[in-house]
Specification:
16 strands, 5-stranded mixed β-sheet, disordered N terminus, 2 domains, Immunoglobulin-like, about 220 residues, mainly beta
Length: about 220
């Protein structure tokens, strides 16, 4: 007796169930990606010298306190606080996907110049003969509490242009100046000990201490 192949047609309802269960899966929806853009006056070493405007793209909320609280984003906002600030931003799309990891940018702001001061031991010296020298001591200080102090030095500026020079990064010392001025100089001869300081962000400050050779 010959075998016979029997073709059995499944009902349409069963075929639909099979298609739904074993059909192709829908492609996964990618979570959104936030872009954080910063705008301001850039200094050195990634420090800004001004307030910074923050613009977020594809963002629904942001945080400025390490995620302690979140604010709804609608328009660019400004960070004005000096020091190191952190911007966190994230988006949840219509499918409920929450961005991970959270977008983050560090915003460093230093709008303040270093604090500088200086004194000299002799502010006034009576006029003496030409080529007679007098020792003048100077003592300076420079500090920066934000980005930090990068460099400080003192230069001597002789009004007559004879003793102009860089006294270096040691902010305390002694230098000999000529205790003479022209008899026609009504204001006397002025020596300026100028302290220059620069912080890591690029802010600069200067302070002058003067010694005057008096015409008498």
């Amino acid at each position: 007796m010959r075998n016979k192949w029997i073709k059995k047609v499944l009902p349409l309802s069963v075929m639909l169930v099979i298609t739904l269960v074993f059909g192709s899966a829908s492609p996964a929806v990618a979570a959104p990606v936030t872009t954080i853009s910063l705008s301001g006056t850039m200094g050195n070493n990634d420090w800004y010298l001004s307030d910074v405007t923050v613009t977020l793209v594809a963002t629904s909320e942001y945080s400025l306190n390490s995620g302690g609280s979140w604010q709804t984003y609608s328009l660019p906002f400004i960070i004005s606080s000096e020091g190191t600030n952190t911007v966190l931003a994230r988006t949840r799309d219509n499918a409920g996907n929450l961005e991970s990891p959270t977008a983050s940018r560090t915003v460093k702001i230093d709008k303040t110049a270093p604090v500088v001061t200086e004194t000299v031991s002799l502010y006034q010296i009576d006029r003496r003969g030409k080529n007679q020298m007098v020792n003048v001591s100077y003592n300076g200080m420079a500090a920066d509490s934000l980005s930090g102090l990068y460099e400080a030095h003192i230069v001597l500026i002789d009004e007559y242009g004879v003793y102009n020079q860089n006294l270096g990064s040691n902010l305390s010392g002694t230098f000999s100046v000529e205790a003479w001025c022209s008899g026609n100089d009504p204001n006397g001869r002025i020596y300026t000990f100028r302290l220059w300081a620069t912080d890591l962000a690029g802010n600069q400050a200067a302070f002058d201490a003067e010694t005057t050779i008096l015409r008498k």
